[in-house]
Write a structure and sequence with these properties.
The complex is a heterodimer.
Chain A lengths: L17 E10 L2 E11 L4 E5 L6 H9 L6 E6 L2 E2 L10 E4 L11 H11 L4 H14 L15 H13 L5 E5 L7 H18 L2 E6 L2 H7 L2 E6 L2 E6 L1 H6 L4 H6 L4 E11 L2 E5 L7 E4 L9 E6 L5 E3 L7 E12 L3 E7 L5 E7 L14 E6 L5 E3 L2
Parallel strand pairs in A: 3-8, 3-9, 6-7, 7-8
Antiparallel strand pairs in A: 1-2, 1-4, 4-5, 9-10, 11-12, 11-14, 12-13, 14-20, 15-19, 16-17, 16-19, 17-18
Helix pairs in contact in A: 2-3, 2-4, 3-4
Chain B lengths: L5 H25 L15 H7 L2 H34 L6 H13 L2 H15 L5 H25 L4 H8 L4 H30 L2 H6 L7 H9 L5 H42 L1
Helix pairs in contact in B: 1-11, 2-11, 3-6, 3-8, 3-10, 4-6, 6-8, 7-8
């Protein structure tokens, strides 16, 4: 069965739906977006991820038309959209606060955008009913926004912004106000709806787990620039900088200098008196070049005796974070560095092999880590 | 239920005596049969009857009502516009100066406002009458409306307007369909405030009215100078009654709104 993988970004003939070209946005002396270039393709679920103040919301507001770029151009389907007011764009936005109109019923909230296009009444009613069904809100059509729960409000906001069948839907921290359980359920609901409607979604979030769950591609941003754009797997497994590795998930970083010892294999001298560790990398390093080895805690294993692994370092257990399904062991090395090793708790806690202050070995394979230059 | 301490009872009594005894005396004497204000000669409603046939008072009441309705309506429109610009236009050059200047008339002595308006009307060659009183009342009550409306606009979630624009509404539609319905309570209370201010203004009306138009406060003031007549007591009693009814109606209405909102929320909680 030859299922085609959805990856328009790898196809050079594919025309992007949105194109940021050297976009810069300044507010007075503050540069919110700094010479940024980015393509987003049709039917993508694209996540803008970064700490607050990194410029992700500014990018979204420029797409919606509430801000205009200071320099560069933003194209939607090949048309420069600078200067097109928000009410004339085929782009809709779901606001972080939901921004439901408190004086209108759920039904009228969803119909608001359709009525502005002055469609006929029957067509509006049909479309509203369709949206209510899509978001499972049929029972609440006559309620006012203050008469429904937070999760229902979130769905009304989604239905309202999808009602006009926009080319592009912007979601500004859409799940921020929901509790953890509901958030998880809603993430899958969002993906489902995105697939059903075939709309391009751009989501802004500071929650990396959320971005990883929903998105086809993730852009990690910092200080007005995009640090890396890639699929969630690549962002996690093959970050191209320490910043990205550190921002997404948990990571151990060893700093040292590289030395080639074979094809695509390097030796990293990371501390005096310690054996160098080995790492595979397709990214070339010159001998003696400063480098950083990033290893995910779940790729580090922990042993009582010295294991026969590519890399093994001795230390002692400093701390144990028990998460129920997982335990994270913080192992202090003689150099003072701390390596985190994550182990699935397949046995009952009383039968745990290690406890505080135990001398242990941590090990990882040479392909477990990623060797980074910056 | 807390029992009031004797100190609280005394302070409460004193307060209410100060507030209401003067009005109470006025109401009682409006039913006095004697023409002498200080001598009680039995119950009678004859002064109410005489008031109804007093053309001068009725004319003045009609002028006052017209002036109040027209000026408070214009003041509400202008005041809301000013508030909207000052809250929404963001930082523009001279914004602080403008917002300070719109509130200055609040503390300006009425005599000065009245005098300056009088000079302006003479300068423009406007005949003093209903029109000039309306203009003068609009001028001084506008800033009150603006204060009330802008305090509501400051707490107004701006993303609601952005959502309306985003859904394809023109800026005018966004204001008409979203902003205005939500700030309506503030606009209405601004209107009521302007209406009341206009209704009982004496100083500014005295400066800006002409022989063709006399407002009720002016009429009462000028007749009192010739001696207090029981007719004026009757008129004042009617005014007190109207105001009381208005206040009760307004508080009942707002209470009903609160009760309904609470019931809705409980219904929502049950459904969730």
């Amino acid at each position: 069965m030859a299922e085609t993988v959805f990856a328009p970004w790898d196809d050079p003939n594919e025309k992007p739906l949105i194109r940021f070209r050297n976009v810069t946005k300044r507010f007075g002396d503050f540069t919110a977006i700094d010479d940024l270039t980015l393509d987003i393709f049709e039917r993508e679920f694209f996540a803008l991820l970064g700490p607050s103040g990194c410029g992700k919301t500014t990018m979204m507001r420029m797409l919606a038309g509430f801000e205009n770029p200071t320099g560069g151009a933003i194209e939607l389907s090949g048309q420069d959209i600078a200067g097109v007011p928000p009410n004339k764009r085929a782009v809709n936005m779901m606001f972080q606060s939901y921004a439901l109109f408190p004086h209108l019923s759920v039904w009228d909230n969803i119909a608001f955008g359709l009525r502005r296009e002055s469609k006929n009444k029957a067509a509006i009613a049909a479309r509203v009913e369709e949206m209510l069904k899509l978001t499972r809100l049929e029972k609440f059509a006559r309620r006012k926004p203050h008469q429904i729960s937070g999760g229902q409000r979130q769905r009304v906001a989604l239905a309202r912004s999808l009602a006009k069948a926009p080319k592009l839907l912007l979601l500004d921290e859409p799940l921020g106000a929901l509790d953890a359980k509901l958030r998880e359920a809603t993430q899958f609901e969002l993906m489902d709806i995105q697939e059903k409607t075939g709309t391009t979604f751009v989501i802004v979030t500071h929650d990396q787990e959320e971005a990883m769950t929903v998105a086809s591609r993730v852009a990690v941003m910092d200080e007005g620039q995009i640090i890396q754009v890639a699929t969630p797997e690549r962002i996690y497994e093959a970050p191209d900088s320490v910043y990205v590795a550190d921002f997404i998930g948990d990571v151990n970083i060893l700093h040292g200098s590289a030395k080639a010892v074979g094809p695509d294999t390097y030796e990293v001298a990371w501390a005096a008196g310690q054996n160098p560790v080995h790492a595979a990398s397709t990214r070339p390093f010159s001998d003696g070049q400063a480098c950083h080895l990033a290893i995910r805690p779940e790729k580090v294993s922990i042993h009582k005796d010295r294991p026969a692994a590519d890399n093994a370092v001795q230390g002692k257990v400093l701390d144990i974070a028990y998460l129920g399904n997982l335990s994270t062991y913080h192992v202090e090395l003689p150099t003072g560095d701390i390596i985190k090793a994550q182990v699935a708790n397949t046995r009952r806690i009383s039968r745990r092999d290690f406890t505080w202050e135990d001398p242990v070995w941590v090990s990882w394979t040479k392909t477990a880590g990623v060797l980074l230059a910056k | 239920m807390n029992r009031l301490s004797s100190f609280n009872v005394v302070s409460l009594t004193l307060g209410f005596v100060f507030l209401y005894v003067p009005m109470l005396i006025l109401v009682i004497y409006s039913f006095n049969a004697s023409k002498l204000v200080t001598v009680w000669a039995g119950f009678s409603t004859k002064w109410y009857g005489e008031l109804m046939s007093n053309e001068a008072f009725l004319d003045a009441a009609w002028v006052t009502l017209r002036v109040a309705v027209i000026s408070s309506t214009i003041a509400t429109v202008l005041g809301t516009m000013a508030a909207y610009v000052l809250v929404r236009a963001g930082r523009f050059y001279g914004r602080t100066l403008f917002s300070g200047m719109i509130y200055a008339p609040l503390v300006m002595p009425e005599v000065i406002t009245g005098l300056s308006l009088l000079l302006l009307f003479i300068g423009l060659g406007l005949d003093r009458g209903v029109l000039t009183i309306v203009l003068a009342h609009t001028t001084f009550s506008m800033c009150f409306v603006s204060v009330v409306v802008s305090s509501r606009l400051v707490s107004f979630d701006r993303s609601l307007e952005e959502a309306a624009l985003d859904l394809g509404a023109s800026p005018l539609d966004a204001f008409r369909l979203v902003t205005l319905p939500i700030i309506a309570p503030a606009v209405i209370s601004g209107w009521l405030l302007a209406f009341t201010l206009s209704l009982d203004d004496l100083v500014i009306a005295s400066f800006t009215s002409g022989p063709s138009a006399t407002t009720l406060p002016m009429k009462i003031w000028s007749s009192v100078r010739l001696g207090v007549s029981p007719e004026i007591n009757a008129l004042s009693t009617i005014l007190i009654g109207l105001v009381t009814l208005g206040v009760i109606a307004a508080s009942l209405a707002s209470k009903q709104v609160a009760v309904r909102a609470k019931r809705d929320e409980q219904a929502a909680a049950r459904a969730a």
